[in-house]
Amino acid sequence: MSDKQQAVFVSERLYARRMTMDDLSSIKEQLQDPEVMYAYAGAFSDLMVKSWLLRQLERYEQDGCGLYALLTRADDEFIGQCGVTMQEFEGRLVHEVGYLLSKRFWHAGFATEAALAARNYAFDVLKAPFVCAQIRDTNIPSQQVAARIGFTRVGDIVKHYRGFTMPHVVYGMTRAQYEAARSA
Fold first, then answer.
1. What is the 3-state secondary structure of the chain?
2. What is the pLDDT of residue 39?
3. Handedness of CA 100, 101, 106, 112 (dihedral sign)
4. According to the model, what pLDDT value does residue 57 have?
5. What is the pLDDT of residue 1?
């Protein structure tokens, strides 16, 4: 069975599939690029990349979702990661759309396309009552992606990561808003 047949979700130009340990070198392209990882306070070491990948594999089993390998439908090129993870917001676990692309694929509309497909997957397949994107306050391009997929600003949180305090903006959409947008 090909990767495309095992797709978790599909868009016009992309598909997402579960990551495997074979994806480690591809994932390094994102996680070890300081420009890509500025919202995470810098590039990851080899050990941190492996830990990140193992965390996604664990999420698939524990949560039934996670970040997935994002590939082009035309030639199966690994361009980044996108998916749905469980994150805390306002005292409860919620579905969060996340997206992270290799720098050479920026500004081609891939992030919006993938995030939209992940949002739809969260509502249609995972039956989420609420879906959000928790984005570093300084990451304006990602905030613009969240707005383009119909999310609106619903709050602010602070995350503590790698010894840093990081303000985040939360964009989100309820199931009712999603259904209204789909029927419009």
1. CCCHHHCCEECCCEEEECCCHHHHHHHHHHHCCCCCCHHHCCCCCHHHHHHHHHHHHHHHHHHCCCEEEEEECCCCCEEEEEEEEEEEECCEEEEEEEEEECHHHCCCCHHHHHHHHHHHHHHHCCCCCEEEEEEECCCHHHHHHHHHCCCEEEEEEEEEECCEEEEEEEEEEEHHHHHHHHHC
2. 78
3. negative
4. 97
5. 36
State residue 176 phi and psi, 5-degree precision: -60, -40
Tell me which residue of 81, 37, 79 sits closest to 56, measured CA to CA.
81
**Domains of the chain in sequence order:** 4-179 (3.40.630.30)
Summarize pLDDT for 162-178 with one digit per residue, the tens: 778 889 999 999 999 99
Q: Which residues of the chain are under the pLDDT cut of 50?
A: 1
Instruction: Provide CB contacts within 8 A for 44, sequence distance 6+.
Output: 31, 32, 37, 52
pLDDT of residue 164: 81
How much is the pLDDT for 81? 97
**Cα separation, 29 vs 4, whole angstroms:** 22
